[in-house]
Write a structure and sequence with these properties.
two-stranded antiparallel ribbon; about 70% helix; 2 domains; 7 strands; mainly alpha; Growth Hormone, Chain: A; three-stranded antiparallel beta sheet; about 475 residues
Length: about 475
Amino acid sequence: MTVTGRTTLTPYFISTLSWVLASPFLYGFHIAALNQVQSALQCFKAVPEDPSFPPYTPPITNGFPVCIPMSNATFGFVTSVFTIGGLLGSLSSTHLMNKYGRKGAVKFNSAFILAGSILMTMAWNAELLIAGRFVIGIGAGVAMCVGPIFLSEIAPQKIKGSVGVLNQLSVVFGLLLAQAIGLAFSTPDTHRWRVVFLTSCVLCLAQLLLSAGVSDTPNWLTAVGRETEADDIASKLWRDHSPGADGEDDGRSTSSRNETTIAPLSVVDLFKMESLRKPVIVVLLAMFGQQISGINAVIFYSNAILSRVMPGAEGYISLGIAILNAIMTFPAVYLIERLGRRSLLLGSMLAVEISLIALALGLNGGVIALSTVAILAFVGSFAIGLGPVPFVLIGELVPFYAASATSSLALSLNWITNFVVGVGFLPLRDWLSSEDPTKPNGRQGEGQIFFLFAGAFGVTALLFAKEYKK
């Protein structure tokens, strides 16, 4: 296969790309791993009342309990501890990437997710679920830091953006697979829900075993003095057949080769260099905007709103949202090189802002049709730009020696914002609205929270547009 008729896409590049993309795939998988199996896992299908009172002892089959009784609060902690682990993983990723290389960091993230998945597959109680989810979060945090950088460093200059978008495409396909498997194996009174985590074990083992056939990126190999090996890997990744081609399309321009001679920076060092402040701020604003848009809150409401249109189809609604997310990410692979990063991201941000306002109006007015259209428009608008492009910027706006630290800082901010929005969403919604039994959801003014998201996101988008010039 060739790109613009000049550069050959080699089998080695495809295999390396596939291997790296397993990391964001696993991250996406575990975002949704608990969504469809909650009832079966939590014993709600076996015991309709709160299983924390009175005490409930589930039957044992094949050596494992068919479910794990826990309150909603406990299940909420099992879910949210993933974010805490993700933050720790992001904070540690700079050290891992600089000391063990991009490949080494990927192996670390896979090993952590494997360990956590084993714990959750064999869990007897909520404590093991919490421990497993936390360990998985650490691996996911590392995965989302190293993935975009690895992709950027193996992609040729002319399609760096398109290759970078594959990071988010893998995330949404991982989310889609988890939703599909969960829907198929959420049978009550059985422990088939464990298949979700067993699938993760198989994927992690495959990635670890296949790592023997993958080398580190040419940039990192050059930085540690293994220049001959770096040149060999670059030639295996890409072959340029242009007249007089000198191999500069292997992802290592002359400037990037020079950058590898500078020692990697720490997170603190990023703000000491004046030349790095603006690009780092741009990346941070993009990552902050991704979460302050309220994406997780919108998806939370998607089930509540769309189930009124399709009663009894809650599980299929979640799956449908995941499918829409995946479909709308595909155009970004093509558009990012045609429209450019800035235009695509700003267009996506504008559409997200309009969708948030429309959703707020729909919820406040009790107009289900408007709320439904707004949710679908939001998911599509997010997927085409705000979802994938911020990860692309990490590997492109900063030089090699600042990439690891910038990725760690940006993803840490992303995890923190995600956690704050997740914890504060329901209390803020309740504070900004009031109870009203005549409304479909029992509340008056439940759209106010989305006006708040629209305001915060709008300010972030304006700051981003000001800082990120062509």
